[in-house]
Amino acid sequence: MPIALALLAAIIISTPSAALTIGEPFSVAASISGLAASSSYTLKLRIGTTSGSMTRGQTRSSSGDWLSDNDAWAGFPAFTTDTFGVWNGMVTGRPGSSAFTGNNLLVLRLRDYGDSDAVAIQINAAPVQDSAAQDSNNNNSQNNNTVTIVQTPLPEITFSPPVQGNLGEVFKVSVNLKNFEANKQYYLKVRGVRTKNGSAYLSDNEAWVKFPLITTGNTGDYHGEAWGIVSEDKDAGNYEIRIRMRKKDAEDFFESEAKTIKLVKIPVLVTAKTSESAVLGTESAKPKKVSTPAAVETVKIDSSTDKIPLALIGLGSLFLIGSLVSFLHGKGVWDIILQKFHKT
What we know:
344 residues, 5 helices, disordered N terminus, 6-stranded mixed sheet, 6-stranded antiparallel sheet, mainly beta
């Protein structure tokens, strides 16, 4: 089936010779025309369920390495056209471990030419069939560009972040993996925030080898924790996070659905400094220097007499005042009273 490309280039790909299994290689014959004569080009196979998710396939390089869709172009297979701008050859790929079963698209991309017009390729999910059934299906689909991927359980990532956390403080995320390859190592990162690994706080675009490395169990499951953080100088609010896994020594990666965590500013505790005036009450309550009154002549009163001058009775109110003054200034009460009596 021809696929229109830039500069009237066209591509024809054949149907794979057998049903495909995730992780197992297949080859297709490709015939490309309409390119510049005696020129070199680089290509790769792409697989996905929609035109916006064509990252589920892998292409084998000329050196035998498996390259994922987001690998650098320099490693992908290269070819050179003849004097008529035509090339015919085989391209080998495989569905990556993140490929979905069911309906998919299969395309061939040429570097510097962008994507071709979207061409739907039916990828039918089917159980493993015997050889006779496979041969029959292959004979009936020679010109349909149909790829059948044997259904296998899809890897699953679930995680549970806290509902709320503080900016500038590490928060814990519980992570659960299911249906991954057994006893394999995977890198783990918390996307949307920084990932904590030991004393390091890693941004999303740092090298995978810096991120935490986990190992799946005998059944391909894993239950553990990851740690994330957002700097305290960032804005408070809701942050969308995901868990992404990448197999060690491979380019396959897996990503969870997004979840939200609310991050708030850490409350600032203000401690008031107690001033001297606050303790004493007011400024007037502070002790003040008081000058000593001048000496006065005292008059002794015979306590045995029954006669008390009326003037002394009239000074009863002064007694209370004298007591207060005596308490504050340390003067004797009787001295004050007798001073007033003497003047009377």
